[in-house]
């Protein structure tokens, strides 16, 4: 029997982080969650920041535990996108990184379009427009704190910062670089015209490295502190969704009678990375930047193994998470399972919200905000937790349908199923609603897709597996999935019509 290969996958998300021990026996993979810790933005004055030093201490603690549990041969780290940090000439943080939910970007997009048109920015980058995009975050600093930007020596994304602290190498991993809105997918480098237009110094931009490459070795001081051997730090798909996309088991859910070459092909399937955010999209083999993408505000980001990912960000389970936090703070703690049961008993389509309304962008009293939205749009607000949860999940499923239809327009082809990966794949009610609303089968799983994709990229860098398609074959052998078939409901079309009218009133259609 072949000796197993053990790697530590560090997965940092906006609401929590974990260290997962991945084990490959030459045929199948097992994942074991070693350590989990919370994350969340912290308010200080008018701004919202990340406590990155605390997070790094948690990462170190988890790596120490993982080294005891397995015979580690490498470490890989992924993190959420959009956010970044600036370092001085000594490699120290100039300030704690801001959260993408920080209000500093309010109104900045409008000011940015005075420097360069929306069309020109999209044509050069292929990135959808959201006020928290990295470009607008950096530009807000150029406008408000030009001296701080001028004193910076290095720009790093969040995952790149932690990699630097692990191995001492300053670089921006490719999948992360593509999310910034100042990377040119066609020239495969930083977009100098955008940097110049927004007074962002090109000198601070680090070299760009490809995913599934060895970045450096764990720093000796860390190895001594944690009592672990020197290990290679591997640049995985450092943007967490790029890692998650590696783990989509495209061989599952293929319609019966489909030709054999469809088994591992992503051509006819959508993926839905479902968590705090939902990212609904599809995989292509080269950058796809077109007029339909601009019209529907889709993004084109880099993936692992030569893939490109066309998707749209949707504010998703964040809304439910905030409601649960609000109820818990009021002394009304409920498990997710109990809330789902209450939602199943609630009246269908009694109220709907646009999950991407600006009202739901920043932390706050979300039950009150949902009530406010419903009153503003002439609807009876949901009464009780079950009705409110059902409102969130049904609205999210209808937003998936709206986005799925426009994704097909951007791609110029039809899609026949949706692969749901990540924590949201366990939400059975949402998966049922999604299959019904969109009208195609929903294939749910694997749950730990991001950590799994992180681990697979490490195996690629180590030479244990050769390609993205081989990685997905291994995923198909190693993890079970659940298929939700669509159920025809006449009320769905009526509800979708109501939902479209809400978007129309907000000027989004």
What coarse outline follows from CA principal-axis ratios? globular
Helix/strand/pairing class, anyone? alpha/beta
Counted beta strands: 21
Calculate the mean pLDDT score and round it.
94
Number of domains: 2
Descriptors:
single chain; 509 residues; alpha/beta; Nucleotidyltransferase, domain 5; 7-stranded mixed sheet; 19 helices
Describe what this molecule looks like in 3D.
- The chain has 509 residues and is α/β, with parallel strands linked by helices.
- It folds into two domains: 5-235, ATPase, nucleotide binding domain (Nucleotidyltransferase, domain 5); 262-445 and 479-509, 2-Layer Sandwich (Nucleotidyltransferase, domain 5), CATH 3.30.420.
- The protein contains 19 helices and 21 strands.
- The protein has helices at residues 52-69, 108-112, 118-125, 134-144, 146-151, 158-167, 174-177, 192-197, 220-226, 240-246, 291-296, 318-329, 336-345, 366-376, 385-411, 428-438, 449-461, 468-478, 490-505, and strands at residues 5-12, 16-24, 29-38, 42-44, 47-49, 72-78, 84-87, 154-157, 172-173, 183-184, 189-190, 208-209, 213-217, 232-235, 269-274, 277-284, 299-302, 308-315, 417-421, 442-444, 482-484.
- The strands form six sheets. It has a seven-stranded mixed sheet with strand order 17-18-16-15-19-20-21, sandwiched between helices.
- α10 crosses α17 (449-461), α13 packs across α15 (385-411) and α15 packs across α19 (490-505).
- The chain is globular and about 60 Å long.
- The mean pLDDT is 94.
């Amino acid at each position: 029997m072949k000796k197993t290969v053990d790697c530590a996958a560090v997965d940092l998300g906006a609401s929590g982080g974990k260290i997962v021990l991945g084990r490959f026996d030459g045929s199948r993979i097992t994942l074991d969650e070693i350590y989990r810790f919370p994350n969340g933005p912290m308010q200080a004055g008018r701004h919202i920041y990340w406590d990155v030093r605390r997070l790094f201490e948690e990462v170190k603690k988890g790596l120490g535990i993982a080294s005891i549990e397995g015979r580690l041969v490498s470490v890989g780290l992924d993190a959420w996108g959009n956010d970044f940090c600036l370092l001085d000439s000594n490699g120290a943080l100039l300030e704690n990184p801001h959260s993408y939910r920080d209000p500093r970007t309010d109104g900045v997009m409008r000011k940015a379009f005075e420097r360069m048109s929306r069309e020109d920015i999209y044509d050069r980058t292929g990135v959808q427009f959201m006020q928290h995009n990295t470009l607008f975050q950096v530009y807000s600093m150029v406008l408000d704190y030009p001296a701080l930007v001028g004193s910076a020596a290095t720009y790093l994304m969040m995952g790149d910062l932690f990699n630097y602290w692990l191995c001492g190498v300053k670089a921006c991993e490719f999948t992360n670089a593509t999310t910034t809105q100042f990377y040119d997918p066609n020239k495969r480098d930083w977009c100098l015209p955008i940097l110049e237009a927004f007074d962002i110094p090109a000198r601070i931009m680090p070299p760009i490295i490809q995913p599934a490459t060895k970045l450096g070795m764990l720093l000796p001081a860390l190895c001594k502190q944690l009592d672990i051997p020197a290990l290679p730090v591997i640049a995985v798909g450092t943007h967490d969704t790029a890692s998650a996309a590696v783990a989509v088991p495209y061989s599952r859910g293929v319609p019966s009678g489909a030709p054999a070459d469809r088994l591992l092909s992503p051509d006819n399937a959508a993926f839905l990375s479902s968590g705090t955010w939902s990212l609904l999209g599809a995989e292509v083999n080269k950058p796809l930047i077109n007029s339909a993408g601009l019209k529907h505000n889709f993004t084109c980001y880099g993936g692992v193994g030569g893939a490109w990912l066309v998707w749209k960000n949707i504010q998703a389970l964040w809304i439910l998470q905030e409601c649960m936090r609000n109820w818990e703070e009021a002394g009304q703690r409920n498990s997710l399972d109990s809330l789902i049961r209450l939602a199943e008993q609630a009246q269908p389509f009694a109220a709907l919200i646009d999950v991407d309304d600006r009202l739901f962008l920043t932390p706050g009293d979300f039950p009150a905000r949902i009530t406010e939205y419903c009153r503003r749009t002439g609807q009876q607000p949901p009464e009780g937790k079950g009705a409110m949860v059902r409102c969130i999940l049904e609205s999210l499923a209808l937003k998936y349908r709206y986005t799925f239809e426009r994704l097909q327009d951007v791609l110029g082809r039809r899609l026949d199923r949706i692969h749901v990966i990540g924590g949201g794949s366990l939400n059975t009610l949402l998966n049922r609603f999604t299959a019904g609303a969109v009208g195609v089968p929903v294939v749910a799983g694997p749950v730990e897709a991001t950590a799994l994709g992180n681990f697979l990229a490490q195996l690629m860098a180590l030479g244990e597996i050769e390609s993205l398609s081989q990685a997905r074959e291994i995923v198909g052998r190693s993890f079970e999935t659940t298929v939700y078939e669509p159920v025809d409901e006449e009320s769905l079309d009526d509800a979708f019509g109501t939902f479209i009218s809400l978007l129309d009133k907000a000027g989004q259609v």
